[in-house]
Amino acid sequence: MTTAVSFQKASRHFGSVRAVDAVDLDIAPGEFFAMLGPSGSGKTTCLRLIAGFEQPTSGSISIFGERAEGVPPYRRNVNTVFQDYALFPHLSVLDNVAYGLMVKGIGKAERHKAAEEALSLVRLPGYGARRPGQLSGGQRQRVALARALVNQPKVLLLDEPLGALDLKLRENMQEELKSLQKVLGITFVFVTHDQGEALSMADRVAVFNDGKIMQIGTPEDIYQRPKTRFVADFVGSSNVLPPDFVQRYCGQHRWGSLRPESIRVGRTAKGAASGEGVSARLVSTNYLGATTKLALDADGLKLHAIVPAGNALPVEGEAVVLTFNREHLHLMDEPV
Amino acid sequence: MRSDGSQSAPLSLKIAAACGLLFLHLPILLIFVYAFTTEEKSFVWPPPGLTTQWFAVTWNRPDVWQALSLSVRVAAISTAIALVLGTLCSAAVSRTKFFGRETISLLVILPIALPGIITGIALRSAFSLADIPFSFWTIVLGHATFCVVVVYNNAVARFRRTSGSMIEASMDLGADGFQTFRHVVLPNIATALLAGGMLAFALSFDEVIVTTFTAGQQQTLPIWMLEELIRPRQRPVTNVVAMVVVLVTLLPILAAYYLTRDADQIAGSGK
Q1: CA separation, residue B70 to residues A104, A169, A203, B135, B246 (Å)
Q2: Which of A129, A201, A330, B111 is deepest in the core (most CB within 10 A)?
Q3: What distance in Å separates the CA atoms of residue B243 and residue B237, rounded to the nearest whole number?
Q4: What residue ranges are annotated as transmembrane (chain B) (predicted)?
Q5: What is the mean pLDDT of each run of 10 residues along chain A (336 residues)?
Q6: Number of domain units in chain A
Q7: Most A-contacting residue of B159, B167, B173 (CB-CB within 10 A), to test interface
Q8: Does the beta-carbon distance from A88 to B184 stay under 8 Å?
Q9: CATH no. for residue B223?
Q10: The complex's ipTM?
Q11: In this structure, is residue A165 part of a structural domain?
Q12: Residues pairing with A189 in the sheet
């Protein structure tokens, strides 16, 4: 089976900056793939390599088995939803959506019909006569989506498409993008710096840092079994435990990660009696609604714990005992 | 200090403003009046009589037509050159980052900041050094130096306002470079080019200083007018021509003003 997008040791260097550095990557057809990472980690450059706006400095990229180097963006069967949507302000919404068909020389009646269908697909039927300037941010986003989808691309690239939307709208769009992808069966490649978004939407996630892929896996893999300290910290801000600490509990001298929600916070008296757990001091509490986030200091090691709302909380500065299930302590591959 | 629309300015300020405006515009009205005077050798106020005969006289003078046609041709070709070079230059400066970008931007704008006489002398000595005979084309070259600036300034401002990812979006949707220019870039800068082009045309049309240095025997309309003023013969003919020139240049400038103003409103409403 051919892969939808394949990177073989692909690099893109800008002078001495290694924006993308020897990346190996295989995206399966029909997959919803997320590229997650902080800004400047190379995820957007990767997307631009697929779109054809950048050419690899070395290595190769293929899209559905065809070599992509040297192929300009307008000859690739790949379309992009841009971060700022990049709608054409001088064209109506319908002509914006029909643009790709227009430059391919498809007749007016036919392309307008296809554009209308694409607008219905993104739930904006009848908006064709308006100008992009008359639409809200969420509507512009849908137009940008329709404009890309009308070309029936083999791969749809989305560059932080939800970044400019407010929270409620973003959650709706997440749902919609996901169901749209299921219906259309197109490969979606999605760039985001929001780990929640990546985890909730994608079939697989690649975590980027410094132009390299730190880990590729299912959201559960990435979240439960981070391979490196960076992934543990960036995806869901896990507690990174140093090798000495881990050795005391598992007997192995390796880096470990412990999710904040796996830590139970108890009063000193109980924990001391059982002789188990880590003694720590509560530094501060952060009320988050459904949960409360506790910042703890265990003899110089800074830890976070998340406890459900409703539990009685220790006061700040109070000594506490932390306990956790051994199986929740995940050992990472990172060399010590 | 802010004043409400309902609050009226003090009377003294109104009078001062009116005086200023009259001072600016009465002389232009005077030119119009002298176009109808019956006195042909000197300008006498008040005019001894009114006549429209000078319009017929002007119409029948071949030197007027020659000068007018030369001016129109020079302005049209300089503007055409400026449109091409100004657009290309502004696209390069606003779209890409390269070494010496700011310097190029400054060098392009310089001809309009320099006194025309410097441009004129420089071009004249350059032409004689290179043994280029003065002709229609030397005038065009001289005018193009400052026409490019006007187009460049207009286009650069528009390019700054248009989103860079629009061009990428067009390429992404399957349009090659030419199609992208035709369907995305051009429509977005069209009004800026129209405004810049009209301004360039008007600038070239009434240019005197650079023209005196770069023209041979040819007379553009402004130079013809200067020479006419020195000779006390059929003076109102000059006024008739002046009146026509004022009307002809005013209309495109007004049009350019309204065109760019509307474009700004459209661009603003999109935000």
Answers
A1: 45, 63, 71, 11, 17
A2: A201
A3: 10
A4: 12-36, 70-92, 104-123, 135-156, 240-259
A5: 87 90 92 92 92 92 89 92 91 94 92 93 89 90 93 93 82 88 92 89 93 92 89 84 83 86 76 62 87 87 86 81 84 79
A6: 2
A7: B173
A8: yes
A9: 1.10.3720.10
A10: 0.81
A11: yes
A12: A33, A157
